[in-house]
């Protein structure tokens, strides 16, 4: 196996390339199970979604015969790159709960040897210490990511990369896990007809009361299925100008 930090860089670059080559239109069915045990809340939201991937403009149809609306993909666009600078909007008392994953620039790396004339080039990661977990094998590399002070100092982020599972043949992530003091976010991927997509995602967040007195933990668990890649969208509004 190559060094873990090298594998992570190759995996991030592969994910960014897959995201850049997303299909123009994507249709899928999603089922999101929302649980807030302390409030005895349990809800299942099923939707048929068709989305224009370049700007994440989507037609959402509540199943079986509910509301039709236009918004961002629900609960997140399946072409989402978890190895990127994104933000999650989550509110435990709203109907859509995991309401929007705001995309950001992908994490990418250039080979410093391409531009350096030094005899020795340091290629270690700046913000993480990467190592292989014991369950890594020739097919799936499980990379454990330890945050470094260069990342966490004065950083108000809810979570950081904790685990990356990578297909060693394609270098694409099969699973990405973020962990923080109040939040866990996991995306499971698979390749469907040549497209790298989120098949399953789980978001767990704990809300605290004033002075951290009392807490409520909410979970949103999403499963996507029935993917299709239309050349032209079924909904004319998605065609755009």
Short description:
The chain is mostly beta strands and 241 residues long. It is built from 2 helices and 13 strands; from the N terminus they run H-E-E-E-E-E-E-E-E-H-E-E-E-E-E.
Task: Provide an overview of this structure.
- This protein is mostly beta strands and 241 residues long.
- It has one domain (4-113, 124-226).
- Helix content is 9%, strand content 45%.
- The protein contains 2 helices and 13 strands; from the N terminus they run H-E-E-E-E-E-E-E-E-H-E-E-E-E-E.
- It has helices at residues 4-20, 149-152; strands at 25-36, 41-52, 57-62, 68-71, 87-90, 98-102, 128-132, 140-147, 160-167, 173-179, 183-192, 195-208, 215-228.
- The protein is globular and about 50 Å long.
- The N and C termini lie far apart (48 Å).
- The relative contact order is 0.22.
- The model is unreliable at 92-98 and 116-123 (pLDDT under 50).
């Amino acid at each position: 196996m190559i060094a873990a930090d090298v594998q992570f860089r190759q995996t991030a670059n592969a994910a960014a390339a897959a995201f850049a080559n997303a299909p123009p239109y994507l249709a899928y069915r999603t089922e999101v199970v929302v649980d807030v045990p302390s409030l005895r809340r349990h809800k299942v939201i099923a939707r048929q979604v068709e989305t224009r991937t370049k700007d994440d403009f989507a037609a959402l149809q509540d199943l079986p015969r509910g509301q039709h609306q236009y918004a961002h993909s629900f609960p997140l666009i399946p072409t989402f790159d978890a190895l990127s600078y994104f933000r999650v909007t989550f509110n435990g008392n709203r109907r859509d709960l995991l309401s929007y994953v705001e995309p950001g620039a992908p994490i990418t790396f250039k080979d410093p040897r391409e531009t350096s004339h030094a005899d020795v080039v340091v290629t270690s990661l700046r913000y993480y210490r990467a190592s292989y977990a014991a369950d890594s094998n020739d097919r799936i590399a499980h990379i454990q990511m330890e945050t470094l002070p260069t990342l966490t100092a004065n950083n108000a982020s809810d979570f950081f990369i904790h685990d990356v599972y990578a297909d060693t043949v394609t270098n694409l992530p099969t699973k990405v896990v973020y962990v923080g003091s109040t939040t866990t976010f996991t995306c499971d991927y698979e390749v469907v007809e040549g497209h790298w997509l989120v098949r399953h995602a789980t978001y767990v967040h704990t809300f605290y009361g004033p002075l951290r007195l009392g807490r409520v933990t909410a979970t949103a668990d999403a499963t996507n299925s029935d993917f299709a890649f239309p050349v032209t969208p079924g909904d004319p509004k998605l065609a755009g100008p």
